[in-house]
Amino acid sequence: MIDKKSGVVKANTVILHTAALFLLPLQILFSVFLLLRGHDEPGGGFIAGLVASGAVVLYLFAHGVESTRRIMRFDPRDILGLGLLFGVISGLIAPFMGEPFFTAQWWTLYLGAETEIKLSTVLLFDIGVYFAVLGTILTVVVSLTEAEE
Amino acid sequence: MLFAVFSGFVLAALTPWLIGLVKDRIGWLLALLPLGLTFYFVSHIPAVSNGEVILQSWDWMPGLDINLSFMLDGLSLMFALLISFIGTFILIYAGSYLRGHRYLGRFYVTMLCFMASMLGVVLSDNLISLFVFWELTSITSYLLIGFNHEDKDARKCALQGLLVTVGGGLALMAGLIMLGMAGGSFELSEILNSDNDLLTSSFTVGMILCILAGTFTKSAQFPFHFWLPNAMAAPTPVSAYLHSATMVKAGVYLMARLNPGLGEHPLWTALLCSAGAVTMVLGAYLAYSATGVKKVLAYSTIMALGTLTMLIGIGTDHAMIAFATFLLAHSLYKGALFMIAGILDHETGTKDLTVMGGLRSAMPITAVAATVAGLSLAGMPPLFGFVAKEALFEAVLGAPWQGAVLIVAAVASAILVIAVAGAIAVKPFWGALGNTPKKPHEAPIGMLLGPIVLAFTSLLFGVVLYAPDTLLVAAAVTSVKGAPVDFYLSLWHGVNWPLILSIGSVVAGVTLYLLWNANRRILIKVNGAVSRFGPEAGYFKMMDGFVGIANWHTRVLQNGVMGNYMIVLVMTTVILTGYTLLSQHGFYLALNLSDMNFYEGAIALLLTIAAIYVILTRSRLGAVATLGVLGFSVALIFILFSAPDLGITQVLVETLTVILLVLVLFKLPGFSHYSTRFEIWRDGTVAVFFGVLMTLLVHAAIDVRYFESISSYFVQASYPDAQGRNIVNVILVDFRALDTLGELFVLAIAALGVFSMLNLRAEVKKS
Question: How does pLDDT run across B586-632, given as a tens digit for each residue?
């Protein structure tokens, strides 16, 4: 597992290499599932963010930093900033409605007769938490891995 | 008035775009704002001079009694007019002075912010908002003094100004809070107009000392005067605006503002009169001994600030008249003279008065403006400065506290100032042509406009005295005194003591001016000897002391040995918490294991074995993996006791922690040595203490319930109020969203900390 000479974690098992490819989308999907159901069932932005970071970290161990950066498209720090931005915006909507900072705002979206989707600043905030956690962990892990190389 | 104050900030935000549109003409464009504000304030003159006080209030933090409330009376109107009127010409002037400067946009942004904050200071009715604007002026001043930030000296001087004024600002905050408590309100208009026990409250002495610490530092009173001449490192428009006409007068403003409430206190009188008189004479003397054109003006500003402080301290009707007149006169001629100093510097390439001379043919317009402003500074009729000086003499002649001393001080400084006026307004323009680095020529119109307008306003006010008298001075006197005062200003009072003193000081002053060159060498020697013991030397000793203590402190506490940090943290917790626990609760440890299930026992056993293995193992990787086992076992406990969210989180966090630790461990070299026997025992003892403390603490937490737990409220309110059934999540993202947001920022800072630490290291390696 560990290449002593360069000190880098190398993916030299086919199983890990292949599994990571398939696990990544599944785990991300699972994290989104956790995020969305979090308000009523166990889950939520924090846990979902951890699951998503776990997914990316597994991929990183299997395929290395370069490849991970490629599939992420964004710098982890941008993800972190996006999370904070969502958090602040979700709080700032209430003052525009004439209510104190961070008062939750709810809107219901009707899709057909029986289906409705509840949207809220709370959900936006949870998404912010998700990205902030994901961004934080990836920033740390990616910096650590890159510092090794 | 809210708009008047905030328009400056808004325009500051737009400046970077505007500067791209109009390039070099930006000064003219931006000056439209203070010009408009001048008209706005002028339109209030009729109402205010009739004795009306205009109050306006907007809620800011109503729960804390903090409002954005504004008051416009005679005193604030006079200041507001000076700020916007002089500001207009300063902005135009700066456009020419800094033409093509790389950071012109940055300059205007800070300058406009300063102007808006200064208006905020003089218009605020609420003590807290006044303080906020007060600090904003300190910060913008810091940025402006250090404008040439590549210059080490400028940075040092900026920091000095900041530390002195902000240090005083801290004291001021305490003073204002005491004032609010003693006065029963945080609105100035209510404090000063109601019957309260301001003078008899137990806070009074502390309050006066704290407030004066703030105003003396801001207004450069002895012994804090040293930062002001150093602030001349700023570009000249800044010196002209902040460090003569406006910001340094904020302290004077506040003292004048509070005078109706505190003026009767003997401590107030004694401190203001003595500090003011010392500052006045010292400033005049230092102005006479300086040779840099800006330094001379800076010291003469210190002299003026001392005079104003002293006049407030004297507190008679005459003193108040003199205060308002002198304030107006000084702002006008000093603003003009500073801009002229900038012209001289700009067009001749030197700041040194000793090499200037005979410039009147090259710069005739500047020479005229300088003469008029200089005459006003010297207090010659028929300029407004003369009226101010006569009023000053009249005030000290009637001073109830140490009158004789104050008369001597006032005459001495008047004599010196006349000599200084000669040095600044006569010497550069007359006599033999000096040997200046640049061939002198007349300044552009943008730079001339300000000095001309300000100098001739001095002349106009002197000739047409009823204008400043009825429109501005009377109303300002009323607000400083707290009651209307009957008086009129005039150039000719007949032959009386003030006139005799004036004539005497002119004769002595002219003599001193003629000796200006001859006295140089002695003055340099004397000042060099004294400065080793002056307050500035004390300031540098204090700063060195701070650095020394910080060094020692860092060496001892932040020594970089992680183990020590841990021991200090853990033992502090053990001692403080343990002491509280034992003294408040006592030592109870009653284990009831009867309803324990076997699988719970199994998890506990697993935990124990893992903990022992971590201690005994010699492999880092093994230790980390076993710590993981510990974490997962704890997660199991959470799940068994029906806290699935917590359990999931724990599992995920454990996984990631192990990964992070493994990543870090790869970077570490092998063990250089194992712990000594002493270290093992020491660490073991600390660990045992902590374990015992936590056990007792958990037990105590289960036993003791001081008040009803809030969790039942969350359980009830979760669905009806927050539309969520997962209480943990609802608390995190709704009930306590602000806390969570704070934690997100903590996470972000931690991540950026790791990022920068690792990358900084990489850079060091490369180089």
Answer: 887 777 777 788 888 899 999 999 999 988 888 888 888 898 899 99
Note whether A147 contacts B667, CB cutoff 8 Å: yes
Q: Residue B645: closest CA among chain A residues belongs to which residue?
A: A42
Greatest Cα pair distance, chain A, in angstroms, is 64
Residue B648: list chain A partners with CB under 8 A: 42-43, 47
- Contact at CB, B737 and A140, closer than 8 angstroms: no
Query: What are the pLDDT digits (tens) for B120-133?
Result: 999 999 999 999 99
- Flag if A136 and B723 touch (Cβ within 8 Å): no
Alpha carbon B530 to its chain centroid, in Å, reads 29
For the stretch A73-88, pLDDT in tens is 889 999 999 999 999 9
Alpha-carbon span B767 to B19, nearest angstrom: 40
Question: Is there a contact between A51 and B740 if contact means CB atoms under 8 Å apart?
Answer: no
Candidates B619, B656, B744, B752, partner chain A, best to mutate (most A CBs within 10 A) = B744
Look at residue B574 in the predicted model and tell me its pLDDT. 94
Cα distances (Å, whole numbers) of residue B325 to B47, B64, B336, B385: 20, 38, 17, 8
3-state secondary structure of B434: coil
d(CA B197, CA B205): 13
**B192 φ, ψ to 5°?**
-80, -20
What residue of A is the nearest CA neighbor of B737? A102
* pLDDT at B65 exceeding the cut of 70: yes
- What is the mean predicted confidence (pLDDT) over A13-24? 87
